[in-house]
Design brief:
Radius of gyration: 32 Å
Helix content: over 70%
Order of helices and strands: HHHHHHHHHHHHHHHHHHHHHHH
Largest sheet: none
Shape: elongated
């Protein structure tokens, strides 16, 4: 959520009527550097600043610091101006806006409260709402945004903050959804509204509703990159293979499909047996994938298409380049008819912490297939030391039963 944080500026050699005045010495000093770039002007002033600089001079210095993107010095200068002139509201407001740019929202709140105590202003309420929202003080953000809207009903940023504040409070989803729909009636192409509404539905564990919202936003051309990526993730999680493929292809054609999401979508399609869809996406996005990931994807695709020979060749080539490629070791072990070589690959995978668990399970399964139940139990118990699950406990009990029956 963005709000206007533009700093209120004052001419270097003259002050507005409602601002503190520069001394004649200060005015001359500022006039001498008014043509310099902000950074050079700041350097010139830092060495010549009067010992008892006025609040107006400190305000001007803060403005120059801000223009030079030296936010900490700008904040300190504005606050020094406020210390000298507590009613210098323009300097206080500038200090608030600098604090917000520095993410010092909690520090900004007392100054906003002070400003609001003397002036009911929609911008001030809006800034306070933004601070409260960033601090996750959602009820306070709601109240501040409502106050801004009461003073300025057409204030769109306040409406957006109100919507997000409502959506973030337990039990307020219906209100948030209603407000989102009301606002979308007049601005159906506002991606922020759709995004907040969809996020609220996701937080309420309504993924299908969130998908509908994001699809509608896409129809109106209001879905930004993050929303489209969320929609892609949802189609995968909800097992909508055709929709996921179509969306990934659309993103790819627009140059917006990241290698990570290309790989995630491809893995999903291959793991769920959507061979033709996986083939289409793989051929379209091959250039996006890193070499290692591309080889793994092509190998898996070859198995899906019944070409085990090609898959084995690709995996051997991958292992030749990187002998400790855990994924390739596990995959090749599954494909080889030579059990001795397969076991050797799995034993190599045991040396890799990230792959040891799966290698142990594969070795246990192979031992069972060879009727070597004690060895299978040994592998299973080692796997349970890494990650124990009820399923693995049942598996080990079944092996113990098989050992008992074998002994009888």
């Amino acid at each position: 959520m963005k709000t206007c944080l533009s700093i209120l500026l004052v001419a270097l050699c003259a002050c507005w009527a409602d601002l503190p005045k520069l001394s004649s010495q200060e005015a001359e000093l500022l006039k001498s550097i008014e043509q310099l770039p902000p950074e050079l002007a700041v350097r010139a002033l830092e060495g010549k600043l009067p010992e008892n600089a006025s609040s107006a001079m400190l305000f001007s210095l803060g403005t120059l610091y801000y223009k030079a993107n030296r936010l900490e010095q700008a904040r300190k200068s504005f606050l020094q101006a406020v210390e000298l002139a507590p009613d210098f509201d323009t300097a206080r407001l500038n200090a608030v806006k600098v604090m917000m740019r520095e993410q010092l929202h909690r520090e900004a709140i007392p100054h906003l409260v002070r400003l609001l105590s003397t002036k009911a202003d929609a911008e001030l309420w809006l800034l306070l709402a933004q601070c409260r929202l960033c601090l996750k003080e959602f009820l306070a953000a709601e109240k501040a945004a409502s106050a801004a809207i009461a003073l300025k009903p057409e204030e769109k940023e306040a409406q957006l903050i109100l919507l997000q504040a409502l959506a973030s409070q337990p039990g307020r989803l219906t209100e948030a959804s209603t407000l989102a729909r009301q606002l979308l009636n007049s601005t159906p192409n506002d991606s922020r509204l759709w995004s907040i509404w969809a996020s609220a539905e996701l937080e309420a564990d309504h993924p299908n509703k969130a998908m509908d919202i994001l699809e509608t936003a896409k129809h109106f051309g209001a879905a930004d990159q993050q929303m489209l990526e969320t929609l892609l993730d949802l189609t995968i999680n909800r097992n909508f293979a055709q929709q996921a493929t179509q969306l990934a292809m659309e993103l790819h054609k627009q140059g917006k499909l990241s290698p990570q999401r290309a790989q995630t979508t491809l893995t999903y399609l291959q793991d769920t047996g959507h061979t033709q869809l996986a083939h289409t996406l793989l051929e379209a996005t091959a250039s996006l994938l890193p070499e290692k990931a591309l080889t793994a994807a092509r190998s898996k695709q070859a198995v899906l298409e019944g070409d085990t020979t090609t898959s084995i060749r690709l995996l051997r080539e991958s292992i030749a380049k990187e002998p400790m490629d855990g994924n390739a070791l596990l995959a090749l072990a599954d494909l080889l008819e030579d059990e001795t070589e397969g076991d050797a690959l799995l034993e190599r995978a045991l040396l890799l912490p990230d792959f040891k668990y799966h290698a142990l399970l594969k070795l246990a399964t192979r031992a069972i297939d060879s009727n070597h139940y004690p060895k299978a139990l040994q592998f299973t118990l080692q796997a349970r030391q890494i990650k124990d699950t009820p399923e693995l406990e049942r598996f080990s009990n079944q092996i113990r039963e098989a050992i008992h029956n074998q002994q009888e």
